């Protein structure tokens, strides 16, 4: 059995693959979300629900993965915190003060998300950090009782992080609801197993607008990751839920 959990990427995109309106706006903002959804025909919600239900039924995933870009802009600084003088060697050890059946896991190696949501009795927030994460941020996570795992040095090592999620949390399946930055990095690292895209008949456009998979371009001479189409469902208004499996072996 693989030491990695299955990684399922699940996104809603325009026909041009854009998953947001622009680099500077996040769908978490109610006004941005309203404008994003203003392009949605009535069948989108149903297809999104059907896609989530299919993944839930098949894998019973216990971890949802997000990137920091869902919460803060590219230029957001690290969270400042004076806190106590807890030693670096203590701070740079995993912190797991609680356990819940499900986890909402966010990659935040630069320590930039100032959390106001911590989860509930069923689902806990857990942050993936690395040894370069600013120590004041780790102090802040500890003060707030927010679990974190340390994976990687200069930035979060996604492969190590996934192995740890399986080892420490028992996660057999991780569903990524991230934007293009994190999904692109997962793709480049050969860590994606399955993709669900609900394509909405709308166009956003714009060079640099987040897409299904961003991150570094393919190296010269590189080839695309091949997918096998598992199923395609067309909604009453022509939106499309497509379910793919990655054909190429993991990198
Ligand atoms: N339509 C949808 O389904 C959907 C879903 C989610 C988000 N969105 C939208 O998409 C936008 C955000 O997309 P985004 O691309 O800016 O953000 P993102 O997907 O969150 O990408 C940035 C994240 O990826 C991590 N990352 C990138 N490269 C990495 C690497 N090589 N190794 C390790 N970690 C790496 C970053 O880590 P660090 O923080 O450690 O640097 C950060 O957590 C927002 O507008 C959001 O509203 C849309």
Largest sheet: 9 strands, mixed
Radius of gyration: 18 Å
- The CATH class of the largest domain is identified as Alpha Beta
Strand runs, count: 9
> How are helices and strands ordered from N to C?
EHHEHEEHEHEHEEE
Helix content: 10-25%
* CATH homologous superfamily descriptor of the largest domain: Dihydrofolate Reductase, subunit A
Counting copies of identical and different chains, the oligomeric state is single chain
Uncertain segments: none
Care to describe what's here?
With 251 residues, the protein is an alpha/beta fold. The chain folds into two domains: 8-61 and 176-217 and 224-251, Dihydrofolate Reductase, subunit A (3-Layer(aba) Sandwich), CATH 3.40.430.10; 86-171, no CATH class. It has six helices and nine strands, in the order βααβαββαβαβαβββ. The chain starts with 5 loop residues before the first strand and ends in a 5-residue tail after the last strand. β4 (123-129), α4 and β5 form a beta-alpha-beta unit. The protein is globular, with a radius of gyration of 18 Å. It has helices spanning 30-37, 43-59, 88-91, 135-143, 158-169, 180-188, and strands spanning 6-14, 63-67, 102-107, 123-129, 148-150, 173-176, 194-200, 227-234, 240-246. It has a nine-stranded mixed β-sheet, sandwiched between helices. It binds NADP nicotinamide-adenine-dinucleotide phosphate. The site of NADP nicotinamide-adenine-dinucleotide phosphate (NAP) has 27 residues, from β1 and α6.
């Amino acid at each position: 059995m693989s030491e990695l959990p299955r990684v399922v990427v699940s996104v809603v995109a325009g026909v041009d693959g854009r998953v947001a309106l622009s680099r500077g706006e996040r769908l978490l903002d109610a006004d941005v979300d309203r404008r994003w959804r203003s392009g949605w025909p009535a069948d989108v919600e149903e297809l999104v629900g059907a896609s989530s239900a299919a993944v839930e039924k098949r894998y019973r995933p216990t971890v949802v993965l997000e990137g920091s870009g869902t919460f803060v802009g590219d230029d957001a600084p690290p969270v400042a915190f004076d806190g106590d003088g807890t030693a670096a060697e203590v701070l740079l050890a995993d912190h797991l003060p609680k356990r819940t059946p499900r986890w909402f896991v966010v990659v935040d190696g630069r320590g930039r998300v100032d959390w106001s949501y911590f989860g509930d009795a069923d689902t806990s927030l857990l942050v993936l950090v690395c040894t370069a994460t600013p120590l004041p941020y780790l102090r802040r996570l500890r003060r707030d009782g927010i679990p974190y795992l340390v994976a990687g040095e200069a930035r979060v090592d996604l492969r190590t992080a996934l192995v740890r999620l399986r080892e420490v949390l028992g996660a057999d399946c991780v569903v990524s609801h991230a934007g293009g930055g994190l999904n692109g990095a997962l793709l480049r690292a050969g860590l994606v197993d399955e993709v669900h895209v609900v394509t909405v008949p709308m166009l956003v456009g714009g060079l640099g607008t987040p897409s299904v998979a961003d991150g570094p371009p393919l190296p010269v001479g590189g080839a695309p990751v091949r997918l096998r189409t598992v199923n395609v469902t067309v909604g009453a208004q022509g939106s499309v839920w497509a379910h793919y499996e990655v054909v190429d072996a993991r990198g």
